[in-house]
Amino acid sequence: MTRSPSSKPPVIVWLRQDLRLGDQPALAAAVETGHPVLPVYVLDEGDHALSPGGASRWWLHHSLAALARDLERRGGTLVLRRGREPGRVIEALAREIGAVGVHWGRRYDAGEVAVDKAVKARLADAGITAKSFNTSLLFEPWTTLNKSGRPYQVFTQFWRTCRSGSEPSAPLPAPARVPAPAELPASDRLADWALLPTRPDWAKDFHQVWQPGEVGAAAQLDRFLDGALRGYRAERDRPDRDGTSRLSPHLRFGEISPRQTWHALHHHLATARQPPDADAETFLAELAWREFSYSLLYYNAELARAPLKPQFAHFPWRPDEAALRAWQQGRTGYPIVDAGMRQLWATGWMHNRVRMITASFLIKHLLQPWQAGERWFWDTLVDADPANNAASWQWVAGSGADAVPYFRIFNPVLQGRKFDPNGAYVRRWVPELAALDGDAIHEPWKSDHFQSGKVGAYPPPIIELAAARDRALAAFASLNGREAAEP
């Protein structure tokens, strides 16, 4: 006999960046109350900096569809609503269905924190219990302060503090059942949100690369642990090889938690009777960079808009729409840069080493504001994360915490030869250059094929590297009034 839905007043679980059932503290606590549970996602229709970009909207559509299916298998229902102020939407829904409580996972952007505090206060005034939980981090920002009670500005110190503390707690199992309310409120249709591109469908090939949802996240973690983890420390810098975890979009949307990832890694090593090694430690440090980025976001509300180092507000950028567009389209004439930008457009993702190369080229060779690159990545990355994206762009620009030194300017030719030595990555994403050998492919303008026009419409270099480097060093030196000189 099938159990009928409960007639008790429900508890709402307000989902945001935690679209999963396993290790979901807000959901688990709601189920433990014994009341029916109503998971809700509210599409934020407000026009602000954290509105999801096009690639993120594609992922969100498929992640929500997967979550709805997972809930249905456990007797639950996902309700979809939308509005310019999601907090107000949740408050109205709570009153509409007579909810006894609202649970959610904490957010860390200052604006979102303020919204959540206000929602919690208004719900309390209405006699509705509101509880927030850590659903997305290993170490919340206020737990990783230095001895002076201030946030770390150097990653290695931050990571050392994290490693010296206790292990993250074990992840929670997914509830066997998510009991639905006796009467369900109205819900939007996911298709009506128009999250997917139509014409042109620039995301048509995304499904060949990605499987959004909790099941896809778990499968990707298993593939990584069984494959690319071995040799990760060295291979993760090779874009021509499958040497990275590719977990970033799943972590971004909370389809898998960092606690699940952390403990799965250690379980894998224990099962193989293998002590943690350099590969495992390097991967954990990558997880920790995400944590460090969220600490920076929590204590710096303008992370995506203003430089952390105030002197960079006076940097002599040279905004150039044509140069920016050539970079966006993968038409700079530098193959490793163009390969990365084309991979980004085709798959919604770019190899991390190439992200650094392309960002350095835009900022330091082309002298375009880092915010322009941050916005483009925000729109085109399926893993566009409000903390990681901004912190990483500021790191490359030299304006952020623990940032790369101003004089470190990635030479795209040398970077290509070092990390794509046979040119396989470039050939895949810049097929015009497929006929060139591994050495010539990174400087195609020097080849006979280029001179004779046998590389199709591939452009010549947009800028000369040596001159661009000198210009960048002079611009950086102008910040403190001294002459640039490489140490």
Task: Describe the overall structure.
- Helices cover 43% and strands 6% of the residues.
- With 487 residues, it is mainly alpha-helical.
- The protein folds into 3 domains: 11-135, Rossmann fold, CATH 3.40.50.620; 137-170 and 209-299, Serine Threonine Protein Phosphatase 5, Tetratricopeptide repeat; 310-477, DNA Cyclobutane Dipyrimidine Photolyase, subunit A, domain 3 (Orthogonal Bundle), CATH 1.10.579.10.
- The relative contact order is 0.11.
- The model is unreliable at 482-487 (pLDDT under 50).
List the helices and strands and how they pair.
Elements: E1 11-15, H1 25-32, E2 37-44, H2 54-72, E3 79-83, H3 86-97, E4 101-105, H4 110-125, E5 129-133, H5 155-164, H6 214-226, H7 232-235, H8 248-252, H9 258-271, H10 278-299, H11 321-328, H12 335-347, H13 352-365, H14 370-380, H15 388-397, H16 412-419, H17 424-429, H18 448-451, H19 465-477
Parallel strand pairs: 1-2, 1-4, 2-3, 4-5
Helix pairs in contact: 5-10, 10-15, 12-13, 13-15, 14-15
